[in-house]
Write a structure and sequence with these properties.
By secondary structure, the protein is of the alpha+beta class. 23% of the residues lie in helices and 22% in strands. The chain is globular and about 50 Å long. The N and C termini lie far apart (42 Å).
């Protein structure tokens, strides 16, 4: 799927944009199922195990920040991960064995859909090595106006910045951190069916959606199979117990098979502790944790 030039670019810059990774039929199906989920959220008045509601959500005007764990909500989201051009990209970057960490469908509603403040995914879920990435499959056309993903090239080779505020993990870096260089920001836009990829240590964020169009992006976070999670993060997997963890690990295996010999590398780690009072999602963690915003005057 990827050229050698694209692979080299990813490892050097820490991000990549790939066009047309799903078929027109797959994209249409994803859009239809997602529209059904958003319509069903009209019956929901507070966040639950499926939906994170945005401010102003109502039956008349459904507004979500995300659909949680979409691969567990409908088989189409799991199918795209395991049987599409997406799978080929993952194999090119992570090899023949890869595991899903988590997934979400971020749904920025028109006219102010919530920003995601600048952060490194690695700060949320450190592993025994950093062969981890996240990709975002665009279900809508993404333009500079509707809250696109932004990255800082090369930041995956730098330090893990502090994601704390007032002594708590707030899920975002301080824009005034001397190691945060906003002058290097690159904005990633593309047509529906395109895919962004970024390394787990790459600094990234996204502004509010101030346009009159939605911005739906399906995000998956993936690890090379020999990267094992370090206890202390907020993922649901830490509460499963050994037997259920093993069953869940097999369900989360995208390519190949689980690896029972974790690879330990000398990588920088900061634990996401002490936790914010509400760690139900990055939006809640950043809000209650008092994260400072780059997107507000």
């Amino acid at each position: 799927m990827l050229t050698q030039e694209q692979i080299r670019f990813y490892w050097k810059q820490g991000y990549l944009l790939v066009e047309d990774v799903v078929t027109a039929e797959q994209l249409k199906r994803l859009q239809e199922i997602t529209a059904e989920f958003i319509d069903a959220s009209r019956q929901v008045s507070e966040s639950n195990e499926v939906y994170d509601l945005d401010e102003g959500h109502s039956a008349e005007n459904p507004r979500l920040t995300r659909i949680k764990l979409p691969h567990k909500q409908h088989p189409i989201y799991d199918e795209i991960l395991k049987h599409s051009g997406v799978t080929d990209v993952l194999r090119d970057l992570l090899g023949d064995n890869a595991t899903l960490i988590t997934a979400k469908l971020n749904t920025k509603a028109p006219g102010g859909g919530a920003a995601v403040e600048w952060h490194q995914d690695w700060a949320f879920y450190p592993h025994t090595n950093d062969d981890l990435l996240a990709f975002g499959l665009m279900l809508d056309d993404v333009t500079p106006e509707n809250g696109p993903l932004q990255v800082i090239p090369g930041s995956h080779k730098g330090p893990v910045l502090s994601h704390q505020m007032n002594g708590l993990f707030c899920g975002a870096v301080d824009p005034d951190d001397p190691d945060f260089d906003a002058s290097k920001i690159v904005t990633l836009t593309g047509k529906a069916g395109s895919m962004t990829v970024h390394h787990a240590r790459t600094l990234h964020g996204s502004s509010p959606n101030l346009s009159d169009r939605p911005r739906l992006i399906l995000f998956y976070e993936i690890a090379k199979a020999d990267a094992w999670p370090i206890l202390g993060a907020s993922s649901y997997i830490h509460a499963l117990g050994q037997r259920r963890f093993w069953e869940d690990l097999q369900e989360r295996t995208i390519i190949g098979e689980p690896c029972l010999e974790p690879r330990l590398e000398s990588v920088p780690v900061r634990m996401p502790l002490p936790p914010a009072t509400d760690a139900g999602s990055i939006f809640k963690t950043q809000k209650v944790g008092g994260a400072r915003s780059l997107y507000k005057a």
